[in-house]
Predict the structure.
Amino acid sequence: MRISLRTWEVRLGIVLVAVSVAIYGVKYLLLGDPENTYQYIFNALGFLPMNVLLVTLILNQLLSVRAKRERLDKLNMVIGTFFSEVGTGLLTYLSNRDPDLAGVRPDLVVTDAWTPEIFSAVRDRLRQHRCRVAVDAADLLALCRYLTERRAFLLRLLENPVLLEHESFTDLLRAVFHLTEELERRGDFAALPASDIEHLAGDVERVYGRLIGEWLAYMEYLQRNYPYLFSLALRSNPFDETASPVVR
């Protein structure tokens, strides 16, 4: 593949140089005046570094912006799949066991009227929220079953190279996998000591905090780029007690 690419580049270079020589040759044959031809060649060569500069700094930057936007779209498609398959259900389950949810629930009822400033202000307020989760042995057993059933899907997500560019979402997946492994290694949840349940609750809270942040960022992305997906996300908001997928 590399050899064929180099051959293609060499051939293109030869063709372009030959075309340039042919054009100057035709100009000389038709118009004569070799001094004018030489002067034009040197003027073109003198401007060549400026051409390289413009292409490198401007065109390359535009291509980079476009490529970054395309990668962002692909990344958010993956994140959307995560929330459809795992994230929204997990967020609903954990938020229902947040003893301090009443204090932040109003901040998480996203609406069409939200602006980037509102999203930013909510993120700032959430940094003050500890994201506690009160779980017992039965809750941990239910979480273990929920995550184990979706383990294959989560593994496929980790195999996606696009995710490597999103550090915070990758951290969320690591936290989810760590929690899954911790839960799978337990046997009888009812026999767990209080110290171990407290340890597992800390792993659950780590997932919960990261999950809220990623969910909020994804909601902002949908509002800005995909109104129809944002509409469904609003009607599936795990923090909105009145939310319903049915349009009324």
Remarks:
- The chain has two domains: 2-63, 68-234.
- The chain has nine helices and no strands.
- The two ends are 57 Å apart (CA to CA).
